[in-house]
């Protein structure tokens, strides 16, 4: 299972989190987020990360020029679109950067929030399901209603996000079988400052599932 730790802002924390077992690191390219870092800062972190780790730039309603500017400096392997991007916009991004993984995030409020997803699957590689918040786009620490996802079987691999932490991760994986999990505020001291002890606790929990052959 893929494990993405999002909102990395510091070189040493990125390195430590990759060593603990994260398969993907996320970098917030959304300027109004407290976890925002610029493309030079992202590249400083990427420089010391092993090449088998996925490096995901998180954008919300970006222009193509904005994405291009970041990609010119930071060697990302994936683009996460976390705003209200249309399927057509996602397809444009995929066409321009076919070698990158395109992840489309959906903020799930009700079962109706899942209805739009089929329109996107042709244009993207991976889905990410996050909690809805009226004020913030992501990194909210809110858990989405997992019952809504009980019968969710999309045509693309998917990440479960939203309020996951070392205390609730096993319950989440008992209820659902995502292809990956994504955590941010559940493993940090304050926005953008990851708590390595909490990340270690997360992997201890995940290894318990692994030893029962469930992950
Ligand atoms: O994390 C942010 O600050 C953020 C800001 C704007 C758009 C997206 C953002 N985060 C996206 C993520 O992928 C987070 O990991 C995801 O929302 C889960 O966060 P959390 O509930 O804190 O685990």
Automatic annotation (TrEMBL):
Organism: Crocosphaera watsonii WH 8501
Pfam families referenced in this protein's UniProt entry, alphabetically: PRAI
Domain annotation N-(5'phosphoribosyl) anthranilate isomerase (PRAI): ranges: 3-203
Taxon lineage: Bacteria, Bacillati, Cyanobacteriota, Cyanophyceae, Oscillatoriophycideae
Family: Belongs to the TrpF family.
Gene3D superfamilies assigned: Aldolase class I
Keyword line: Amino-acid biosynthesis, Aromatic amino acid biosynthesis, Isomerase, Tryptophan biosynthesis
Enzyme class: isomerase
Protein name as annotated: N-(5'-phosphoribosyl)anthranilate isomerase
Residues passing through the membrane, by range: none
């Amino acid at each position: 299972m893929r494990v993405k730790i999002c909102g990395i802002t510091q070189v040493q924390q990125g390195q430590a989190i990759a060593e603990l077992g994260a398969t993907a690191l996320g970098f917030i390219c959304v300027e109004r987020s407290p976890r925002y870092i610029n493309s030079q800062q992202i590249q400083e972190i990427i420089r010391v990360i092993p090449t088998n780790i996925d490096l995901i730039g998180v954008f919300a309603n970006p222009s193509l020029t904005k994405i291009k500017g970041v990609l010119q400096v930071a060697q990302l392997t994936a683009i996460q679109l976390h705003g209200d991007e249309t399927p057509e916009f996602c397809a444009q991004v995929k066409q321009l950067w076919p070698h990158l993984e395109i992840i489309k995030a959906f903020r799930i409020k009700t079962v109706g929030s899942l209805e739009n997803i089929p329109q996107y699957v042709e244009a993207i590689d991976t889905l990410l399901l996050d909690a809805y918040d009226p004020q913030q786009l992501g990194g909210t620490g809110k858990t989405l209603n997992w019952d809504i996802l009980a019968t969710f079987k999309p045509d693309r691999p998917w990440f479960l996000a939203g309020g996951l932490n070392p205390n609730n991760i096993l319950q989440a994986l008992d209820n659902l079988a995502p292809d990956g999990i994504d955590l941010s505020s559940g493993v940090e001291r304050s926005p953008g400052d990851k708590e390595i002890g909490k990340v270690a606790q997360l992997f201890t929990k995940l290894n318990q599932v692994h030893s029962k052959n469930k992950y």
